[in-house]
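Q: Structure tokens for this one, please.
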Amino acid sequence: MIIHSQAIVLKSFSYSNTSIIARCLTREMGKISVIIHGAKKKNLQKSAYFQPASYVDLVFYFKETREIQTVSKASFVQTWPHLQNDLKKIVYVLSVIELTDKTVIDRDPHKELFDELVSVIRMFDSRNDRLNLVFWHFELRLLSLLGFKPDFEKRDFSGLTLPNPFGGPNSRELLNGLQNNDPDSLKEIPITKKDRAVISDYLTTYLKYHFDGLNKLKSFEVLKQILV
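A: Here is the predicted structure, written as tokens:
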């Protein structure tokens, strides 16, 4: 079966001297792995399409019995010109990419989550300040779309008491706003150092409670170091 779908590349690595295997979140099929034969050949230069966070249009051959599908065509839907030379933006984008990869199961289509991921990468590319609002917004949307929408008033779970999400001077207003509105609607609310620590701690703990394998997210550690 031939599938035509938009995709965000989550991860890629070399396979043989000329080919690439990539893990992608596709709009039509969910998370899948694909192989791109000859991607590294100089006359083809397909490898540029399969860097993490690339937003591409894919045509691939899908077989239910195969773990890795074969790509026949690839082209960019949109590029991100402002990410390339901004380390903070790059790390934020890699963080949402890695978070998506670790929380979404294979072949489980979720068009709304795909659109949210595209939207947040676009925001990181286009804006230059308060990037943490965009990141927190995505974490909340991811949780909500996967069935774990936080109730900020509930802190006691089996085997865990969550950090107080309202421990910062503006964290209550910020979290409630981010859960229900676009980050741009919160431009007038100050973000203090305490707010950043409280919100980050709460969301990270909440995510780790609901999803296995989030204790060693490389991009999160790099992001933490850059922000400090």
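A few notes: The longest helix spans residues 193-210. The chain has a mean pLDDT of 93.
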